[in-house]
Amino acid sequence: MATKRGITFGDLHSGHRCGLTPPAWHGKPVKGGLTKHNKWQSLRKSLWNHWVRIINEHGPFDFALYLGDGIDGRGERSGGTELLTTDREEQTDMAVECINQIRLNANKGFSIVGVYGTPYHTGSDGEDWENVIADRAGFSKVGAHEWVDVNGYVFDLKHDVGSSSVPHGRHTAVSREHLWAQLWAERDLIPKANAIIRGHVHYHNYCGGPDWVAMTLPALQGMGSKFGSRRCSGLVDFGAVIWDIDDSGNAKWHSDTVFIKEQKARTIKL
User: Fold this and answer.
1) What CATH class does 4-263 carry?
2) Quick one: what percent of the chain has pLDDT higher than 70?
3) How far apart are CA 43 and CA 254, in angstroms?
4) Domain spans of the chain, in order of start
């Protein structure tokens, strides 16, 4: 076996005004037409360019692990006013094109495994639009909770994880996930994992020990949701995490997170 390079990513929220959006939709106005659009168009272009840069700079890839929330959904809580489209078929087309960028810089035998995101975004009415994304993007598997073995190094993948309102508490949720995974593995009910990977919270945080790491991934959605701007105070990270697993199952990883200059707040001068 040779060293394998992979990418872990998620929370694209394609279809949202600041979700990861392919170029064909960069100029699309927000549904409702009540918002100034120039800053969102500029942001979407910037996010896309950073995504393509991450893929080109770190590829070619042998595997990819997708952590869900590929689309933003119908946006019921905001009446759809933050969306480029409420059509989840069209949102899925966006997400698949984003994911397929990885295949443009992939090695022979490339494979991708994913997990379902939150029902509010990807199927609150009982549907699982992640199944459609997985089918169209050629996933090997998509499920609620998956384990992937790469050269003997095991990833434990699930979308949802707890959050924290204080910076020093952000380690707690993923550390708890690791402990529960150990207890389940001791009962021989799940595979013993080396890396616990979660999405959902849109920030990159991690903890670990000599033979394990637990982390939340950065998102591929920029800042700009009404919920986030009006209710939340924590930092948001944009990017992905890159992995190298050698033929003995030893892993090295590093994150590629990006400061999006279009997101910098400015004072109002009176």
Assistant:
1) alpha beta
2) 90
3) 25
4) 4-263
